[in-house]
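In response to the reviewer comment on reproducibility (Comment 2.3), we provide here a single inverse folding case reported in full, input and output, so that an independent group could reproduce the run without further information from us. The structure tokens appear first.
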């Protein structure tokens, strides 16, 4: 269940009211002992439905700036990832997703370098979208 909750959280910008929907699941991840309730099952079902019904990808528009969003990047110990999006008709819409497992040396990077590695890898991966376009890099990372 924590893995599903983590996956759903990755898409938090694309599911309306995700935090409210997933709150019972969030409580389960903090609670000891782990007891699956009717409320948790209802939350799980509603969250699955919301993820399935969410409009996922939009076509890219070359005349609109691209946003490389690392606010929802997973720069964990084992993988990096990012979302490329654009504001289309006033709504931020994802164009493409990216994730990659890091090698052994990169797993030893400090959090700042892991986040930077995610940005560099995403820039390389999305190069064909970004060449000649304005790019806005968004990140929630900050050095402690």
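Designed residues, in position order:
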């Amino acid at each position: 269940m924590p893995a599903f909750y983590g996956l759903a959280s990755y898409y938090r910008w694309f599911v309306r009211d995700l935090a409210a929907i997933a709150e019972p699941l969030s409580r389960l991840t903090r609670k000891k002992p782990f007891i699956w309730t009717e409320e948790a099952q209802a939350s799980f079902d509603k969250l699955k439905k919301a993820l399935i019904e969410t409009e996922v990808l939009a076509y890219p528009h070359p005349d609109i700036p691209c946003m490389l969003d690392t606010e929802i990047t997973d720069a964990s110990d084992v993988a990096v990832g990012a979302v490329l999006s654009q504001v289309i008709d006033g709504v931020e819409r994802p164009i493409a997703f990216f994730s990659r497992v890091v090698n052994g040396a990169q797993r030893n990077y400090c959090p700042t370098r892991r986040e930077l590695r995610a940005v560099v890898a995403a820039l390389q991966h999305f190069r064909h979208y970004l060449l000649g376009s304005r790019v806005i890099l968004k990140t929630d990372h900050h050095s402690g």
